[in-house]
TrEMBL record, chains A, B:
Organism, scientific name: Lachancea nothofagi CBS 11611
Protein's name in the database: LANO_0B05006g1_1
SUPFAM superfamilies given in the database record: alpha/beta-Hydrolases (SSF53474)
Pfam assignment, any one: Abhydrolase_1
UniProt record similarity statement: Belongs to the AB hydrolase superfamily. MetX family.
Length: 491, 491
């Protein structure tokens, strides 16, 4: 069944005075109007009216799901019926990973390149016969392409676990009761995500060693984690605009996004998926829009905005308003709105937290290993109960106000955790205009590994890119070129 | 009447499972708990129950206002019954400015120093007999103090117009109907704010020339605007962590804060003040908390957080949660919560926008002058109607997507607008760890004015301060010291 859930939200002209506020007959100045709020209220009303029979894929889920337009089809699904035990003590009793491939696997199975995606990307890195829409890395992959030549390489891209574009995530049914996991979904680490991918690569495809593992942003965390967890299973590693451990500044920005989204009343603590009993639940589209606007501020750079928008307003002759008014505001508003119905809110929350938690430290690995073993034992002895993960015995007000380890100790821990990666052929790319994963975080990766000739470090300065963290999506010349040369290079 | 509206919000231990979500008897993993949301819901419930007779100042307002604890008393009020015509075409038919002073005005009236505040500060820069609570610049002012010696200087500090600590702002009654202005308040420019201050200084105090005009952040915009609008009325000008024109990156961050606050259902398009008809309206405390959390990210710096919090979590042994979990998150949460009941949401929105609009350009001044004249004419001919400031004839979707002037043209416009400041004794201070008003914005002020010997430029590097934009609140040695030396200096 095909139906159009993509609601027209453009071209809202001025509406009447907001009905719920008191209309005052006298005031010293005109009352301000809020077309941006009118628009959001109108969208909420439209979402409530949508036909409840309309779903992304009526066969896989009984629920009235949001439409993730760009990736309705064209991917394959790897199904694993073996449980995946997780770094933070949870379990996925079974799981699915959506994936796409381009090019052909050679007989020796030695030409596979695995692309790890950023937070919100699907497996659709490149257009294909099955899905002709342009992929998110369209210009970086293809026959004869200078980065990923599909005449040579067998390119694989997956939707990460926790996502909503075909892989198991919070919107997927929990096998325990066949209702969406929602916030009963277990927290994932980046290492958990790549453990799922590794099953796809080895069990389904029979590939013993990847030629390369490539990722940008959260994908660049994954490529490092892949080399850390499976050092013998990958030849070359590329990490772009990523880090060895998250930084409190980035955590702070993602924290803000999560809290804003969770404050949307429609989020309903994650249980916003319409059910037979409550068919009119709506997505937390306002919270998603706002979270994406904050994220966009961290993805792009000030100098780019200075030259594109400056401080010009839509109309200098009008009194300023609190709804979007400066050009930069209309840009952010548009970015937020575009995203608000295209990605699952819970996937966003979980993967955002997964990024915060990324840490290649030895102590982190040791704890994770122990917890995975505990999760396995609990699962195998069927000792699963519904005791919630409460914060009951610690007060909510922080009892621990400052860090307990020194900066130096934490750095040594990180260096130890990265031991398995040492000696691997590694390309590290940083972008100086990136404020979210600043260039010193990529320098740190190189420093921690000790800069042998097997490590190549590229840093794009402001004259090469002003696109900030988003550079990897846009810069075919410098990002694509550097990766292409690295892949072709023989040590 | 004294009453305790300061609601205890600490020490919320675990609550029962959220009632509105379906309790599921079976799930593969435990459901996540949300103590941070429980706490906000509890606070909303408590706010609804507060006694409606309880108000900040029952004589000045019939409404059940929030308690702005720190500044209940101890300030004086300047009342102007002459209308103030505003840069964006609005009018304040009359207005009040709350102010405090320290030290004594000499006979020649030549020792007055006016301090302009940042967005959310009150007039209470320093403790006094009337209000013994420490002021926001407590350590920078006092008898024998190395920055502002009150044995020598007569120090004045005001609450800015648009604020909520005693000066006329959105929570004040509109004389047209004696109900709070709310979002019928007219938009203010920084220049409007200092025009109000100038009346206090000249009309009430009879001071013809200030010895100095000093400000940080939005206050640093004001001190520049004072010199621009009244160059003959000020001897020395100090601007700290400010700029000559806002930057799209800062606008973007403030935009995010505003949109988040406006999305709080309790904000009610600004009409959240309890009325006789609706005594149980509550403040948009969740939106304020979230906005302040985002703001805090822009006020402090990453390196400071790295050394204070690193990436440590409250408890490594617990599964991660979406409520505050990392130390940095509990810090942000606490900062947001502290602020959420202490400042008026509409004041925050208006003054945040005022900062965005700050621009010393010539074209901006010319437009403003014309609009003020139009406002005066309209007021004097009583041609005031209630026509709202709609965006009716332009579609909401941006029709103008990119800037229409070049970077160079805009810079020349700014240089021309700053002409009146040229030749003034000026101290410009920038802080390298400040991401909100980056150091190049202070360099730009100096460059635009042409660096004569009357201009002194101080730049604090990371070894001197890691406190980012907040440095001016904390750094007695470098900020206080530099300002003190500048004030004592004879050219």
């Amino acid at each position: 069944m095909k139906c159009n859930l993509r609601i027209r939200t453009t071209q809202v002209f001025c509406r009447g005075f907001h009905q719920s506020s008191v209309i005052r007959s006298r005031s010293s100045n005109p009352a301000m109007q809020f077309p941006c709020l009118d628009k959001m209220e109108e969208l909420s009303a439209q979402l409530k009216k949508r036909p409840s029979s309309c779903s992304l894929d009526a066969t896989s889920s009984p629920h009235n799901e949001p439409v993730y337009e760009r990736v309705r089809s064209g991917f394959k699904v790897f199904q694993s019926d073996k449980p995946l035990f997780l770094d933070y003590g949870g379990v996925l009793p079974k799981f699915e990973i959506a994936y796409e491939t381009w090019g052909s696997l050679n007989k020796a199975k030695s030409n596979a390149v695995l692309i790890h995606t950023g937070l919100s990307a699907s497996s659709h890195a490149k257009s294909s016969v099955d899905n002709p829409h342009p992929g998110w890395w369209e210009k970086f992959i293809g026959p004869g392409n200078s980065m990923l030549d599909t005449n040579k390489f067998f390119v694989i891209c997956t939707n990460t676990l926790g996502g909503c574009y075909g892989s198991t995530g919070p919107s997927s049914p929990d096998p325990a009761d066949n209702s969406p996991y929602a916030t009963r979904f277990p927290m994932l680490s980046v290492q958990d995500i790549i453990r799922g991918q590794e099953r796809l690569v080895t069990e389904l495809m029979g590939i013993q060693k990847l030629y390369a593992s490539i990722g940008c942003s959260m994908g660049g965390m994954q490529s490092l984690a892949y080399a850390q967890q499976f050092p013998e299973s990958v030849e070359k590693v590329v990490t772009v605009s990523a880090c060895a451990r998250s930084h409190p500044s980035s955590i702070a920005m993602r924290h803000a996004q999560r809290q804003v989204l969770m404050a949307d009343q429609h989020w309903s603590r994650g249980f916003y998926y319409p059910t037979a009993a409550e068919p009119n639940k709506i997505l937390p589209h306002v919270g998603m829009k706002l979270a994406r606007e904050i994220a966009t501020v961290t993805y792009r750079s000030g100098p780019e905005w200075e030259s594109r928008f400056g401080t010009e307003r839509l109309n200098d002759e009008r009194p300023p308003v609190l709804c979007p008014d400066f050009l930069i505001e209309t840009y952010l508003d548009h970015q937020g709105e575009k995203f608000s119905l295209e990605y699952d809110a819970n996937s966003f929350l979980y993967l955002s937290k997964t990024m915060d938690l990324f840490d290649l430290s030895k102590s982190h690995q040791d704890r994770s290993k122990r917890r995975r073993a505990e999760a396995r034992q609990q699962y195998e002895t069927q000792d699963i109960n519904d005791e919630p993960t409460r914060l009951c015995d610690v007060p909510y007000e922080p009892i621990k106000k400052n860090r307990t380890t020194t900066v130096e100790e934490a750095r040594e821990d990180l260096r130890n955790g990265m031991d398995p990666i040492k000696g691997k052929e590694l390309l590290v790319i940083g972008v100086k205009s990136d404020g979210l994963f600043p260039y010193w975080q990529q320098r740190e990766i190189v420093d921690l590994l000790g800069s042998g000739r097997e490590i190549k470090h590229v840093e794009l300065d402001e004259s090469q890119s002003l696109f900030g963290h988003d550079t990897f999506l846009l810069d075919v010349e410098h990002i694509g070129g550097s990766i292409g040369r690295f892949l072709r290079e023989k040590l």
